[in-house]
Automatic annotation (TrEMBL), chains A, B:
Domain CoA-binding as annotated: residue spans: 18-116
Nucleotide-binding among keywords: yes
Protein name stated in the entry: Acetate--CoA ligase [ADP-forming] I
Organism this protein belongs to: Candidatus Lokiarchaeum ossiferum
SMART domains: CoA_binding
Amino acid sequence: MTTSSKTFDQLHEDFTALFYPKSIAIIGASKNKLGGSKFLIALQSSGYIEGGGNVYLINPKFDELFGFPVYPDLMDSRIPKPIDLAIIAVSAKFVPTVVKQCNEICRFAVIYTSGFGESGNKNLDTELKNAIASSNTRFIGPNGLGVLNPYSKLAIYPNWCQSKGNISWVAQSGGTMARLYLTLGPMNIGFHNVVSIGNAYDISITDLLTYFQHDSITKTIALYLESIPDGREFMQIAQSITPLKPIILWKGGQSNRGVQATLSHTGGLAGSYNVWKAMCKQSGIMLADHFEFFQDLVKVAALRPNVPQNLNVAILVAGGGIGVEFTDMFEKMGLVIPDFEPQTIEGLRQIFPAVNTSFNNPIDLGEYGYDPRLFAQAFKLVLADRNIGSVVFVREPERFNIISKMLDIDDAGQMTIDSLTKIIQTTDKPVFCNPSPNRNTVDAYETRYNFQLQMIKAKIPVIEIPTNIPKIILQLYNYGKFLESRK
Amino acid sequence: MTTSSKTFDQLHEDFTALFYPKSIAIIGASKNKLGGSKFLIALQSSGYIEGGGNVYLINPKFDELFGFPVYPDLMDSRIPKPIDLAIIAVSAKFVPTVVKQCNEICRFAVIYTSGFGESGNKNLDTELKNAIASSNTRFIGPNGLGVLNPYSKLAIYPNWCQSKGNISWVAQSGGTMARLYLTLGPMNIGFHNVVSIGNAYDISITDLLTYFQHDSITKTIALYLESIPDGREFMQIAQSITPLKPIILWKGGQSNRGVQATLSHTGGLAGSYNVWKAMCKQSGIMLADHFEFFQDLVKVAALRPNVPQNLNVAILVAGGGIGVEFTDMFEKMGLVIPDFEPQTIEGLRQIFPAVNTSFNNPIDLGEYGYDPRLFAQAFKLVLADRNIGSVVFVREPERFNIISKMLDIDDAGQMTIDSLTKIIQTTDKPVFCNPSPNRNTVDAYETRYNFQLQMIKAKIPVIEIPTNIPKIILQLYNYGKFLESRK
């Protein structure tokens, strides 16, 4: 909703103060470390305060909390005005009054408190909406966890990772916001501006998209939405962004009962999923239907959003069972596992013995396929094949140790990563690695985790759930078609 | 293929010697620890030899290997006859001769060597088949990794876990055999008889099923098959087993190209997937279409194969986003998320505050939902609801630490598991837990891993990939319908 009286340019300027606030007021800080004071502890642990950020605690009941002075209200003359960001964490019934107090004092405010329209409290909801409409402050929420930015050390929970990156992320669910942030962040797939937008009574998803469009750090936009007030406006802004920056959307509320569930969650009107699908197709948005797929699609878009020229996929494994599995899975999803060009097969035949191997697509390289030198040659041959649009390969990191011993080389894993890092720079084709976990122990997990960290450095997405891979390829292919139509 | 001249009763008797061999000959043992000698090292590390098992190494080129005497051939008078099990690990061209030598000396033999029909070596393949047909020894393979049994310490790789359990598992792919064994085994979901059956030129899947039917330890049968020689025979035996022991089948080669890929993998005729689907439906086999789903279905069948009375599912979460996600996912797969009975909702209302919660299906218990005492009450109410066939709930083990501190209790995780352990014994309804990982770090993984180990002790399956849950419920429901039709 762009109901504000401010012009876009003013808004655009303003959003920088939201994501890079020089001063933050926490209204409703108390002794309870899980209430408003959670934000103070978060801003301490993130380094915001140490880096020169100013935090003002507001609560008429205290003079001091956790060693910080506490002010009775925002108007207190000791607080320098204007304040860039207020965090409102008072009981729901006091929120409208506090919202009014913010006017002319705070540039932005996050309404952390919930218990309005989404909980059926109609009168209080109307009162809050009226207070917001009459204020010059711009509001995030209510019922939202707030705003994060690893670049400005803006934090909302203590000890959350602060991975700087190119993703800006808006979620209409605090839990979902946290899940993506804490799944990708620790793997060094980082974020710029993150917003748990809640009921979005003032600053809307289109407002944020407009800002992200012009933000030079944001290269990938991830959205979890349950409802939007104006589909047409959303599509217009999305269409102007997707030719330059991929947008990945997960829509909560796809089925009848799912839509019902969103009502008590964020209280908006969800709309038919078919309408959302059509909207995404027309505006080049990549659509994910559940979390695990969504996070993989965001990962791919943030690392290497290359689009395939066709739906033909090469499958490169060492072990015939997985070759059969992936072929079944991909073909059933509408992808094609084509024959290779004759020179590809001939090339493979010159590198590998004929025993326990299979050189047509899906390729089974057998035990020899784990020799990093031979694998690199095979990988190059397959990438060069003109029948192939994307390459999917399996590397089981648990096997590198024994392979190193067998081949008498230092570290087969590192050697594999080094060669892949070089090869990936010579191709535009999408490439995906599946780790095919073959040991369910904590040690084996750590081995796979560290391998994935290295692969991410090389910009090669590791996709653990193989059923997500064909879905990703289809989304990238459709995105490519959209990009072509916009040329 | 029951091409042997032996009667069933003899066969049945014989299979005990295959899975509980008192003596094992390794033909083709050499200095190479990755060849035939791998089996020696495996049988040392498993405790087979220490437990009194006899191993005889065969190779005319050596007198001694790894401190063990080596005999020139099977006929050597120093080797007591008959030998229960021979492992044939010589080059393909020597295999037919060794197969002939086994006759009257070895009860069973595993042909580990590959390079026959599946590699296009037609003449050698015919020679091998003829040698097998003229021998009284019964053979597993060729192109199979062999036979495992944690009860008899029969092992094929050093340091593989030896989890004893109720699953017997036959795979027409060595890699796939290993994946299931090493995924479920470390979680204490254990195995009895495990066979990597390879091309199955002699002992067939139906021979093994016939044995498992009468084996009292086997309660669950898992199969990965790419082809069968006689569908009718397979169906007949399966139909007589499934009323008593669930069979879970993953069929490799479901798509056109997938079927092609199986040809170079195990060389059999795969047949149309629709025929397999119909066969499974008629014989009460639960069908899985890829590995991750297969292993979850086997896990559920081994732990608690309870079937739901209907397709109505209760979803119990703490955090609205996941409730919406699961509702969408389950409904789109054909499940129903029905309203609760009024007394269920009323009961929940008496336990939980109305803020940030939602008491109809999907239930969002909010932050309070992590209090183990309140959760146990909610869980019981939902299980008792007559509209509900299965219950799916989310517990994020990463949250128990902070919850324990918040609630000032010792260990919220343990308390949750203790109460669930008791409640699960009072219900026949299928129950599934999803851990909804919310932190991607090795530490968080370890927390989830240990939680899952505890839940497995309580016989509650933890399903990590949520999209598998509705698929599991559908398979169990169909299995229930089949069981009813057989009453």
